[in-house]
Amino acid sequence: MDSNTYDVVVIGAGPVGENVADQVVRGGLSAAIVERELVGGECSYWACMPTKALLRSAAALRAARQVPGAREAVTGGLDVAAVLGRRDSFAAHWKDDGQVGWLDSAGIALHRGQGRIVSAGVVEVTGDDGVPVTLTARHAVVIATGSGSLLPDIPGLHEAAPWASREAAAANAVPGRLAIIGGGVVASEMATAFAALGSSVTMLARDGVLPLAEPFAGERVTESLQEAGVSVRLGAEAASVHRDEAGTVHITMTDGEQVEADEVLVAIGRIPNTQDIGLGAVGLMPGAWLTVDDTLRVVGEDGAPIGDEWLYAAGDVNRRVLLTHQGKYQARAVGDVIVARAKGEAVEDGRWGRHVATADERAVPQVVLTEPEIASVGLTAAAAETAGVRIRVVDYDLGAVAGSALHADGYQGHARMVVDEDRKVIVGFTLVGPDVAELLHAATIAVVGEVPLNRLWHAVPTFPTVTEVWLRLLEAYGR
């Protein structure tokens, strides 16, 4: 066996693992990263980047059609081949040369293969040649292996070769008929994308469309999907699935109704990629989500860090927030705290400290690129009430803002802020409407900074822009 020693070994070279390793190296330590697939991970090749590329062309076309003068210049529909080609370019044609080059330039060692923890601080990597290489970490091992799609135990589903999020993001052809099991973010975005690309889409949304968002957000997206020709079956649940010899997928509902499709996409949740990384060697359950403390060290059932506190987990695997940007946020905290502990420096682990991921608790921003777009940060009204916060909800018609009327004819949208009445700060904010994703960061700053409402009066929005909704919401609150 070959043997290599580093200060830190990271298992998983997605955006989270890359950021952990980068922070560690920037802090003066050495780092190695282990990857069994493509460097860059899910987000680069099968999620964030390719899916948003699939959605963007249709969004641009819709925007043009909503503005007189531009509308008349539109003479055709989407060029599907061009859309898929642009998607391919953003996925780097599923080659990771560029990402590998970045690792080299950052001074991060790459070991390709399946990484497994074999003992405290020791990771064994088995590549395609079957020859194991042992990596030893002086200070920390970080698990950043992400998550995969959950396939439910529906009779016949596995045999029907369903699409999961990966297959949808990387599809090289648009199916004539697409059935989607699920109603969350992936299901809603892919229904939006494939309907625009020409598929006849049926959405089986047992728990509703975007059930974790503010109710008005899910309602508006449902209406928009239906207007785009999507058959949205609220409350529908698949009882069995069968693909016949001709390739047609037959889905039987619990009420006996049947749906036929050329492909079926399952988008109902995620599972951690921890099945084969050696968790058993440290007393943890293979395939389980990992629990972490405030500084993202892996802890056991007793809440104490594993062993001599050398094992960390960042990103999806710790189940705090399954979003790439939050995983990268965690990665920066993990990298910095490992460096601090290695150098004997003070650890800032109090609320909003440098070495903790406080924003995971109540300040998570998210955009959903459906039509209309949804942009939110912090708590929904329901979640705030569940958390015991005494709230006031303030709503405003986003279409009534002058900037919205200029942005698109017939602009329809909605804005909501959720105010903590005891502290007079915003704890939740949601926007629904065309092109609202780029408006979110102001709300994120207000929530994270816990900016008092009386100070926000002095943050003057420019006229005539859609951001004037901030003034209108504050006026509504003050009445």
UniProtKB/TrEMBL annotation:
- Spell out the Pfam families in the cross-references: Pyr_redox_2, Pyr_redox_dim
Keyword Methyltransferase on this protein?
A: no
Record keywords: Flavoprotein included? yes
State the EC number(s): 1.-.-.-
> Which InterPro entries does the record match to this protein?
Class-I_Pyr_Nuc-Dis_Oxidored, FAD/NAD-bd_sf, FAD/NAD-binding_dom, FAD/NAD-linked_Rdtase_dimer_sf, Pyr_nuc-diS_OxRdtase, Pyr_nucl-diS_OxRdtase_dimer
Superkingdom as given in the UniProt entry: Bacteria
Q: Provide the FAD/NAD(P)-binding domain boundaries.
A: 6-328
**What does the similarity note say?**
Belongs to the class-I pyridine nucleotide-disulfide oxidoreductase family.
Q: What is this protein called?
A: NAD(P)/FAD-dependent oxidoreductase
